[in-house]
Specification:
By secondary structure, the protein is an alpha+beta fold. Helix content is 23%, strand content 24%. It has seven helices and 16 strands. The longest helix is centred in the last third of the chain and has 21 residues, at 305-325.
């Protein structure tokens, strides 16, 4: 029954809205681009906000690979960012942000200083070095190419860009894991508020549909192609396989609301609840879970942070489920669509 629910989830988990584009780029002023290094695979996903946006961040996992997140502290001087770099390659992949900076500098996007423009581009990477040749890593060139490819079109989901090497369900080791990728979702409210999310889901744990409680993808059973259920493994005392293949779920929530830096930081914290609803276990000592929050401020008027945070968690949970269901499998790493019916 659980397996049937996972198959059914392939076309599910997209929030109801009047949006024709129910992905991160539904928020005006945001562009997204991918560049995939198919030879490993790994890659980069870039979010561009060339007009600038207020931003915050929340890091919950104990093993993060991040860059320039301190700048997003409300007490720090920088008030706007112009891009976010997401990549594979763990700490090595953080260099992808250099290419995004170069692209934006060439376009004269950033904070004015001494006749130049300095783009602010924080970033995060997933640990995907257990998939393919770990010597193939995203570089500044990967970030530059992803920035060149960025557009306001609906985000391409699945095993592309930073999600090309993403996996999930690694409690039983990489040998029993499944393929994951990039997922995105958005919702529009009657008053014009838009909230959207993009995620690269690469967790130790299983992905669970919050609407049903059924496992969408996760640790595969030792025999056959069924799912073992990480919850059952933990509660039965089954020890975790170490090493587990490397983890981290990294994502972006965006809104057209007008927020302060402190409010954007709080929004990132609230959005993390979406991870907790759709991934089990989450925020572990071997995950580097990170959420960036960006507010373009194009919608005038005040916004209820209670409602905004609730919507943000919902769209992030949906994005996580889509990251699992839209993935394409690799040899020995099946995706949801590869599960035996």
């Amino acid at each position: 029954m659980v397996l049937a629910a996972a198959i059914a989830a392939l076309g599910a988990a997209q929030p109801d809205s009047k949006l024709t584009n129910a992905t991160l780029t539904a928020v005006g002023g945001i562009k997204v681009g991918h560049h995939t290094l198919a030879e490993r695979p790994t890659g980069c996903t870039v979010v561009l906000i060339e007009g600038g946006a207020t931003a915050g961040v929340d890091v919950r996992g104990a093993a993060p690979a991040t860059r320039d997140t301190d700048l997003l502290d409300p007490a720090k001087m920088v008030q706007q960012i112009f891009g976010i770099s997401l990549s594979g390659g763990s700490l090595f992949g953080l260099s992808a942000a250099d290419g995004v900076l170069r692209y934006l500098e060439e376009k004269r996007v950033g904070i004015a200083f001494g006749g130049r423009r300095i783009p602010i581009v924080p970033g995060a990477s997933i640990f995907d070095l257990a998939v393919g040749d770990a010597g193939v890593r995203p570089t500044a060139d990967c970030g530059y190419r992803a920035a060149q490819a960025a557009s306001a079109a609906a985000v391409v989901e699945g095993s592309v860009g930073a999600g090309a090497g993403a996996t999930l369900g690694k409690y039983g080791g990489i040998e029993r894991a499944m393929k994951s990728g990039v997922g995105s979702a958005a919702v529009a409210m009657p008053d014009g508020l838009i909230v959207a999310a993009l995620v690269v889901a690469n967790p130790l744990g299983d992905v669970i549909d919050p609407a049903t409680g059924h496992i969408v993808a996760g640790v595969r059973a030792a025999a056959g192609s069924g799912l073992a259920d990480a919850r059952a493994l933990v509660r039965s005392g089954t020890p975790r396989v170490v090493p587990s293949g490397g983890n981290s779920t990294i994502g972006v929530v965006a809104t057209n609301a007008r927020l302060s830096k402190a409010e954007a930081s709080y929004l990132a914290q609230l959005t993390d609840d979406g991870y907790a609803r759709a991934i089990w276990p989450i925020h572990t000592v071997v995950d580097g879970d990170t959420v960036f929050a960006i507010a373009t401020g194009t919608r005038s008027g005040t916004t209820d942070l209670v409602a905004l945070g609730a919507l943000a968690a919902d769209v992030m949970a949906t994005a996580v489920v889509r990251a699992a269901t839209q993935a394409t499998g690799l040899p020995n790493l099946p995706a949801v669509r590869d599960l035996r019916r």
